[in-house]
Amino acid sequence: MLPKTEVDPRMTDRTPHADRPRPNRRFFSRTSWPEARFLADVLRTETVGGGLLLLGAMIALTWANSPWESSYAALGAWVPWSGGAALHLDLDLAAWAADGLLAIFFFVVGLELKREFVAGELRDPRRAALPVVAAVGGMAVPALIYLAVNLGGDGLRGWAIPTATDIAFALAVLAVIGSHLPQGLRAFLLTLAVVDDLLAITVIAIFYTDDFSPLPLLASLVPIAVFGLLVQRRKTWWWALIPLAATAWTLMHASGVHATVAGVLLGFTVPVLRGKAGDSHGLAEHLEHRWRPISAGIAVPVFAFFAAGVSLRGADLGAIVTDPIVIGVAAGLVFGKVVGIFGSTYLLARFTRAQLDEDITWTDLLGVALLAGIGFTVSLLIGELAFGPGTDADANVKAAVLAGSVISALLATVVLVRRNAAYRRIAQAEQVDADRDGVPDVYQRGDG
């Protein structure tokens, strides 16, 4: 028998109706803590985040090329807050996704990149120099290819279009196909893509921005500095940090500089090393753990949904493929990125003391160089700034960026899938050691 102080669950039907706990019948009630934690852990998995991004991109491409493409365009062009013109915040949904939500992604990237430079694979200057130089080479060669194709024509103003790598799409593809690739390869691509984005934003500010305002840019450094002061002292008050980050983003956007730079700079201010002996993780790792589900589950997929909706309905494909602008952009992304990144890295490693991570092969680097040819967001932005939104040249740029990015992604997939399979076999061989003599049994068999 059960003690009198306990209730036999079999007797619940005899409990008076008024005393029974009422079931929760709300449709959108808060989930249990284990469910919420499980969902957050799933979203922290890069494969899931990459899959959500690619899913958002496929939905956008399908919708934008369907008979209902006007509704997709209308959704992206809707301005939810029309009264923000004074602060340059009268943005449509597509701009909010690219400038606002993507700043969360860049904040997480800034945290991860600083952790790599301070305590990770890139803390050795000889290794850190390679992706930085590769980013420069990966911008210079595509620009030269574009200029060579369009020399003497009307498309010279678009020389910077193929120079940009879309970090969100590139990392997503790598996450989906690279389950066993070396971690150093991701750090290399991450550093290369961030430097590439920062240089591309600098190019936009110098060559393509007519309304650059230095005063808001300088003012944005104040909330960034206060944010950095608080996190350096381990003061993680959300009611202070979030308004400071929003103020920095607003001022950065008002200056004419791409507002996602604020996310990177805020991430760089967060300390990596543990503050006290009892801390199990540094603050950068803690904040990255907190914000990654929001970045991977919301910010990046929504951005992909609004960025990837390139419509090709009714386009004259014959005229598009022969347009020098299209040839220059596509060739710059597919060939220029590979030659620039792989060539500059090889030359630097050959003639200096800089070196690749010991776990990375040159074939791995070739796959990453191909992956860097994915150039969605910033490339499309430069195309609009160079030729004007809605023009024939801008439409051709979108087609060229889409084609070049898809070809680069497919070629990178061919290379990296084979490398991933090789690393998977190595990992499986290392795990098989039945006699526990420290030597995998696969190396003790008579066949090799």
From TrEMBL:
Catalysed reaction, written as an equation: Na(+)(in) + 2 H(+)(out) = Na(+)(out) + 2 H(+)(in)
Annotated GO MF terms: sodium:proton antiporter activity
Region named Disordered: 1-25
Bilayer topology: Multi-pass membrane protein
GO biological process: regulation of pH
Bilayer-crossing regions: 47-64, 93-111, 132-153, 159-181, 188-208, 214-231, 236-251, 257-273, 294-313, 325-349, 361-387, 399-417
Compartment(s): Cell inner membrane; Cell membrane
Protein keywords: Antiport, Cell membrane, Ion transport, Membrane, Sodium, Sodium transport, Transmembrane, Transmembrane helix, Transport
GO cellular component, one term: plasma membrane
Ranges of biased composition (kind: Basic and acidic residues): 1-22
InterPro entries named in the record: Na/H_antiporter_dom_sf, NhaA
Domain of life: Bacteria
Its biological purpose: Na(+)/H(+) antiporter that extrudes sodium in exchange for external protons.
Family: Belongs to the NhaA Na(+)/H(+) (TC 2.A.33) antiporter family.
Identification of the protein by name: Na(+)/H(+) antiporter NhaA
Lineage, highest ranks first: Bacteria, Bacillati, Actinomycetota, Actinomycetes, Micromonosporales
